[in-house]
Amino acid sequence: MTECAVLDMASEYLKDIYNINSLESIVNAQYGRCDIQGVLKAINIELGKLKIDQTRLFMAMKTIAEENRNRDRYEFENEPTHFDGETFDDGALLISRRFDAAISNVNSAEYEKSRVEFGYLLHTVQDFYSHSNWIEIGYGEPNKGIGKYEVLGKYASKEMRTCVECVGNSCRSNIVPSILQNNVLTSGYFRLRVVGAFLDTKPKPKPVGKCSHGGVLDATISTDATGGGINKDTLTSVHGHLHQEAASVAYDATKQILHEFWKRVGNEPFGQFLGLSESLRNISSSSLIIVMDTTGSMGSYIAMAKQIAITIVDSHQTLEYKPSNYILSPFNDPEWGPLTTSLTPQEFTNEISKLSANGGDDTPELYYHGILDALQVCEIGSSLYAFTDAPAKDAYLKSQAVQLAKEKRVTITLFYAGSSRKRQTGNVQTKVTDVIEDLTIVDGNDLSSITGGIIMGINSQSLSVTEDYIINRLDMHKLKPIIFARGNQLNLTFYVDSSMKTLRIEVTSSYALTTTGLRLTKSSGQILMPIPSSQTQFAFIYTVPLEQSDVGEWNIFSPITVAHNIELNAISNISCSSTLQKQLVDSSSDLNFVTLTSRPIQGEKDLFVLTICDNLPLDLITGEVYLMDTKDGSSISEILTPIRVSPNGFLSRINVPNDDFRLKTVVHLKDGSLIQRQEKRIISPTSIALSIDNQPYYVLLNEAVSMNYTLYNYGQNPLRVTLRVNDALGLLSSSGILKAYDIVGNSNVSDTIEMNTRQIVDASSNTTMITDSVLFSIAALNFEYEDKVSVYIQPIDVPLTEQTEYQKPPRNSANKGSTSLLMQFILMLSVGFYRVYV
Q1: Mind listing the pLDDT tens digit for each residue in 7-26?
Q2: Which of 157, 172, 180, 678 qualifies as a FRET site for 57, CA 20 to 30 Å off?
Q3: How far is CA 650 from the centre of its chain?
């Protein structure tokens, strides 16, 4: 629904601003659903003509939709988020505050933060129509007061009976008739029937005579009024006969608040919000980032590193869409910066040329300070290239860097100079607060591997191959990853499909590579010994053209005896992506999911893998997902088979292993042919986790807010856990909060931190909402975990006001039924899985 509404608004924007009339009514949403891929394809044709990077709209849409879905994960027990338990005023306030936050972020040019906030509020907007009795009363249009700090209507008092006991189909009419006749609003109460491990929640019981939310997991259906519920989340809900009406009105409400947002912020900011603004033409959606070590030890390498960096900048000028900006983040020791952002490549290369090597008081350097500074200001989907010749001494910032890089989908490539020199810190004097990390160790937990990048050694002969490597990177939107493995003497099998035109193979390492000898065996049995198109001591790059007769199973063998990476990509228009999905505990009997953004828990059993393919020539009939061991690139930890299949994807259940893995996907098409693709990012399971209670947090300026959190150790052994809490506004002090806990196996510990907003001194009178992001980073031995929460700070309290005139429904539409249609799995795959399907 959210994706369709965003595309609907995009088509309207293109008509109003660019006079493009061909997209009018193209979305044609039915019950909040549409042909997302077909609509995107039509819009992208017009964006190509306008020279607007197509990824901008796609990523904006995905961010808004994903953050909508995430509210069921992070705010599951917060009643106002879902309008549960008759929390109408609190829900209305929450939407209005988040609407203000979205506007404030747009006014500060923080467009991605605004999209996140808008995704948050849309979940609550849409839940109003599924969880309340708005549809049962007979309303066929959205509530006009939502998002405007207005009371939403006449509410049932706490003493008023709203539902009666019911059984079976009689539950379709379980709302007290007078409630409907008098246009009185009510919503269902929900209490989780099954209490999971470590879940220690004591929700308030349902008042006597109130409606339940409903569903097999809702314990309130056993108390007066018993028997059913009133949610319209799915076609199979008790009030599922009204699901389509609820979905249709919720869709109109989604567009209504998007229109209001457009009106409030204006054409240009709204265009930036959607990624369609006139000022974005011919500019990509991402930043180009250089992070450079300028300490004295780089003296013999700095000229080479600068030359490679300038080559990277020059290479990006060959792109159809140039970087949106250029970010240079130098780091030294004990200082780092200053960070510079340039709008032209000339300005950027001038800044790079000014760098020189000096200072540095010991061998390890402030690598993560340089990385974090850049990540905080870059655009979504950026490429970051870092240069250093020493370990990091500030690895205590690594969790924050991982969180930001994943959140902003940044790929990090590290060029390590003189990689054989500084492996041991030895007798280097380090401060007690330092956390040293050898950046040349590639174990799946290094920043490059986590973000889908690599670590490559460089020397004075590296310039030409580095240029080839960068040029290959520029084509990544055309390339589909087939193999991404690390090890020595790698022996790997892969499938060539008919869509592949060329293989591009990169063999890279932070160690010196002393031999080539790469061998390819075709499906016909023919053996190829390709010659590198360019090579250095640390990298070999190959290009292998393909013929139609090459379709079938191939083998690649690398005889190299030191640890190295093999990345094999193919030019192809077929893409398949597999992502971890978390099953939501909810009130319906359907499988409902949200994309897992944090690390999975070792042994976790309520996770799934969702595979979606685009541009398949035929329907797929089945598939497998392979869990590939990252320590041995040819080793398969487990093979997952589908539990549900659609023509363009499938769903698999996964029991999370203890060790790191990558996801490799093989799909079987109707004609018996195979498609293979692989995810580059490493998935690193952990045994520790964090839950932050009572989200979201709201506070008035000059007041304090307490955050209650619980740390979990799901492993058998005791752990010493370190917690760092930082926030974007620095309200928790510039260095944040540092705490340590000893947690025995299979147990948890709870604690509280307090944030005081008196430190905010620059709140203008025009600011209606200040937002702060608080990042919780925890670590224990080799385990890490990150989570982030939002805090809404309002300079003055804005109360709800009465609407000038409450809407009245047409009487003849009250309680009308609808035809229940079977929900197609393909549609669920395309749109995503929700706790609330409206």
Answers
A1: 999 999 999 999 999 998 89
A2: 678
A3: 20
